[in-house]
Amino acid sequence: MSQGQDLLEAVRRRLAEDGADPTPARVALALREQGRLLGDAEVLGVVAVLRSEMVGSGPLEPLLAAPEVTDVLVTAPDEVWVDRGGGLERTDVRFRDAAEVRRLAQRLAAVAGRRLDDARPWVDARLPDGTRLHAVLPPVAVAGTCLSLRVLRPRAFGLAELVAAGTVPPGGDQLLRALLTARLSFLISGGTGAGKTTLLSTLLGLVGPDERIVLAEDSAELRPDHPHVVRLETRPANQEGVGRVTLRDLVRQALRMRPDRLVVGEVRGPEVTDLLAALNTGHEGGCGTVHANAAADVPARLEALGSTAGLDRAALHSQLAAAVSVVLHLVRDRNGRRRIAEVHVLERDRDGFVVTVPAAVQSPAGFREAPGWGRLMQLCERGGGGFR
């Protein structure tokens, strides 16, 4: 440890013993007790370092503040990675040791109102600024504390920005607008980090200003640019094991809040049954996201989720056929670029089960028509969102 680090550690210990905040006056006093007299600029420098560590995100603050960063991942004291939209990059940021990473993870968990210790060695929470926090402590994380932070952008992208970024192909914005105008119920599928939440936020911003959007989410990440949004978020049980609010609870409450658009941020459990039931009882234009490797896998994915609520296969497919019209599937290519790869419509096969049929496939020139194109146009025109 260098002399400067020794000094910082001594000041840390002194402030910790007093339970004091790192104000300039207290830092200066602690420095004098160490036999060091520093100028105002040097004292303020020490204050900045200590405040960042004690009430901020420590060495990660500059990364989290960068506007292009979407994820910050710590796998070891000397392994800090970021994603700026083009895939993971290793940074030069370093922690002093594994203990510092653990302290930061535990402090961030405390800020989020969660517990993180040997008895409860992982946490999934949202920080006050909206950043998504996930952390796992050793020995569950074998090599040391793992910390994952997903940055929530303060505003949603505009549709034109997604076209410019290549997420939406040229001319594809007209098709997306037609889907919304026709009030078609849809799901956005894709893998982790494919941009599902980003696309959904953007599309919700296109909903008419006279419509009421009710969001139900595990972690409040959707930020649609819309004047009438009601946001509901799940809650874990408290220390006594009571007070838990599930996503299924939120979907049921949302139905009593007069939604024009019912939105489930991520469908990943028994709440799928309530969502499908809602979309079958006059709640047109509902939507959500779901993890799936391909659009064709979405029916099977929903079938598996429905089984957790005791819904059998035939009943699930019957509800799905009437509830959801379109699947937008996102992929993330090897260069880290997120894009809508396919648009599928849902149809029943000869056995009565729901399958997806490609209607549009992304190409450099725009969406290319696929076998389900006619069905997609029919759905849009039926709802008043004609598109050619």
From TrEMBL:
Family membership noted in the UniProt record: Belongs to the GSP E family.
Name assigned to this protein: TadA family conjugal transfer-associated ATPase
Source organism, top-level taxon: Bacteria
Positions of the Bacterial type II secretion system protein E domain: 55-332
Organism listed in the record: Streptomyces sioyaensis
Principal location class: cytoplasm
PANTHER family cross-referenced by the UniProt entry: TWITCHING MOTILITY PROTEIN PILT (PTHR30486), TYPE IV PILUS RETRACTATION ATPASE PILT (PTHR30486:SF6)
Keyword Plastid: no
